[in-house]
Specification:
- With 439 residues, the protein is mostly beta strands.
- The protein contains eight helices and 26 strands.
- The relative contact order is 0.11.
- Keywords: DNA-binding, Metal-binding, Zinc, Zinc-finger.
- Residues 276-398 form the Replication factor A C-terminal domain.
- Residues 17-105 form the Replication protein A 70 kDa DNA-binding subunit B/D first OB fold domain.
């Protein structure tokens, strides 16, 4: 006899469950250079209830050789605990923890009927979600300027609703995606990403792959196989148009003159480029900082005695001083104004904007007096990552917004931790084809 996941009771150690192991992945401490803490599991039972499990590092040698994604197990002697809301991968409020008394026994497919896959997809408005599926429009590879090492893959996805989102993958995920996209021929491409980490910053949605993320493409899963026909149906109904994927794009390196020429001749509304130039001056007309809303990161308006955010209108928002510096740059072909914001300016000055204000006891944040920490940047050469928006393609643009600043002399990024290479696993001749998985 066994019970379903929904019948488990917290703390009870004499319970028996039957479940299919959908996924397992290494749990690592990112604050301690990727130190291995154990393995996390994702299980599903007969009622399609998803539950998370964990195996501590001390018990890995006992259980890890027994783990096979897609296989079914009888599990007993485990500890039932409340789910950690910070690292929660399911809606279920309980999770199981393996210990020295736990028994893990693999069973045959004929034992009971448990689904081989389960995904929960939300619309753009309902995000954050843990899974997302969409048509791949474009992919871009970001490499370190000094070492050419791949740092990040950016995937532009079109959801079934027609809305588009950006998903970022780093380290081993970036390398894996770069290899997959690099071999794909031009055509329609569908991608499913599990266990993503959605974040809102400045009112915009950013999706990031996590250690638990896994990617599926085209006809690998039932969910991906059924997506393209629905998208084609929407296309016929005039809701959206299918886009052709043409391969991995590399961010091009342009001079400032070429950048200006591109703006005049291009019909695009968005583009990204790298540009290497020397900072020759700092414009002080518009000051060097602004007060940011703690809720939405937009600029706050100073009233007589208070600060107001005209974007989110939050009454609880607290103002925080952030950098906004207009850099006059020149690369030998021509000059321009690049606007750099907080993250990169903190890296260049080694000081928060609020610290400078505190030291100077400056109550007029947008005055024309530039701090010495900012003036010290003049004369230095950097590579700027420029992201062009629809505003830049108008006659009113006078500056370019900097997404990231690279120091040409910076050290190569240190490796984090080694990820296992993909291994194809056959679960046996009696297993359905859909249970063939990639670990």
């Amino acid at each position: 006899p066994y019970v379903g996941f929904s019948q488990l009771k917290s703390g009870h150690g004499v319970q028996r469950v039957v479940g299919r192991l959908l996924r397992f992945w290494s749990a690592r401490n990112v604050k301690k250079e990727g130190q291995l803490m154990g393995v996390d599991l994702l299980l599903i039972d007969e009622s399609s209830t998803l539950m998370q499990g964990s195996i501590h590092l001390h018990h890995l040698s006992t259980f890890e050789p027994l783990l096979h994604e897609g296989s079914m197990y009888v599990i007993t002697g485990f500890e039932v605990t409340r789910s950690n809301h910070r690292f929660k991968m399911t809606d279920f409020n309980l999770s199981i923890r393996f210990n020295e008394r736990t028994s893990l026994v693999q069973i045959q497919e004929s034992f009971c009927n448990i689904p081989t896959e389960l995904f929960r997809f939300h619309s753009h408005q309902e995000l954050p979600s843990i899974h997302i599926i969409g048509q791949v429009c474009t992919t871009k590879a970001y490499r370190n300027e000094a070492t050419e090492a791949l740092e990040r893959m950016l995937v532009h996805l079109c959801l079934e609703s027609g809305e588009k989102v950006w998903l970022s993958a780093f380290d081993a995920h970036a390398t894996s995606l770069n290899q997959i996209f690099g071999t794909k021929e031009a055509g329609t491409c569908v991608m499913l990403a599990t266990n993503i980490n959605p974040k809102y910053f400045g009112g915009e949605l950013y999706l990031n792959a996590t250690a638990a993320t896994k990617f599926y493409f085209d006809d690998e899963m039932e969910a991906t196989r059924g997506f393209l026909p629905r998208l084609t149906s929407n296309y016929k109904d005039g809701i959206q148009s299918l886009e052709i994927y043409h391969g991995v794009q590399k961010i091009e390196h342009l001079t400032i003159a070429e950048l200006n020429d591109f703006l005049i001749k291009s019909n695009l509304k968005e583009a990204e480029f790298l540009c290497t130039a020397t900072v020759v001056d700092i414009l002080s007309t518009n000051g060097w900082s602004y007060i940011s809303c703690s809720k939405c990161a937009k600029k706050m308006t100073r009233e007589q005695t208070t600060l107001t955010c005209n974007n989110c209108h939050s009454i609880d928002a607290v103002g925080d001083v952030k950098y906004r510096v207009e850099l006059v740059v020149d690369d030998g072909t021509t000059g321009s104004v690049f606007v750099a914001f907080d993250k990169d300016m903190v890296k260049l000055t080694n000081m928060q904007a609020s610290q400078i204000v505190t030291e100077q006891d400056d109550t007029h944040l947008n005055n024309s007096a530039l701090p010495q920490q900012i003036l010290d940047i003049v004369g230095k050469k950097f590579t700027f990552h420029i992201k062009l928006t629809s505003f830049n393609f108008t006659t009113h643009h006078r500056s370019f917004t900097v997404s990231r600043i690279f120091d040409k002399l910076q050290d190569a990024p240190k490796p984090t931790f080694v990820e296992k290479q993909p291994v194809h696993v056959n679960l046996g001749t009696n297993s359905p084809a859909s249970t063939r998985v990639v670990i």
